[in-house]
Design brief:
mainly alpha, globular, two-stranded antiparallel sheet, Transferase(Phosphotransferase), domain 1
């Protein structure tokens, strides 16, 4: 998790939002360190809390609509059943993807690593959003079954805040790195 945070910090500091963070885009190299892949949908302008509005300010082609530029639209390029399971509620509902969406995806990945399941198993993006808003009791039960540490539970809950204004990471990667979960893991974190 620490190396994923550092990777996201590097991207975000450079003004880039990954926008497609999920387990299939995280690799472990021969030295045991992670590498992120699939930057096809990443784009500059993601700064620490900058909203990234895909094609709303510029770039609509003649006859195109915001819906055609949605991460859920067939032409967007994020194919496969799993991709939307890592999208934040705001990305699904308003099609706005920011660096806070990357922190949400990190929370989904961490939850999946701790429990072996996705936190929101809905069969549609809309169901996922509803489950994310009403999640506290369900998540508590799944964490208890997994015997996750209190620090890990607190980190995942902070990353999976449905309201992006309350989500850990709104103050940047330093805010995430300062979480008690990372204390003592490595002097580089």
């Amino acid at each position: 998790m620490g190396e994923l945070v550092l990777a996201l910090e590097t991207l975000h500091t450079a003004g880039i939002c990954h926008k497609n963070l999920r387990p299939t885009n995280v690799f472990v190299n021969y030295t045991g360190h992670i590498k992120l892949s699939d930057y096809w949908h990443s784009n500059p302008g993601g700064g620490e809390y900058t909203e990234m509005r895909r094609s709303r300010k510029a770039g609509f082609t003649a006859g195109s609509t915001p819906q055609q530029h949605s991460p859920l639209s067939p032409g967007y390029g994020l194919r496969g059943k799993e991709f939307w399971r890592y999208l934040s509620p705001e990305a699904i509902l308003s099609h706005d993807i920011s660096v806070l969406s990357d922190w949400w995806a990190l929370g989904i990945i961490m939850f999946e690593m701790l429990t072996g399941t996705l936190p929101f198993p809905g069969e549609s993006p809309e169901t996922l959003c509803k489950q994310a808003r009403d999640s506290s009791a369900v998540l508590e039960h799944r964490f208890a079954e997994a015997k996750a540490s209190p620090q890990a539970v607190a980190l995942v809950k902070a990353l999976l805040q449905a309201d992006p204004a309350k989500r850990l990471g709104k103050g940047g990667a330093q805010e995430v790195r300062a979480h008690p979960f990372f204390q003592g893991l490595s002097p580089q974190i």
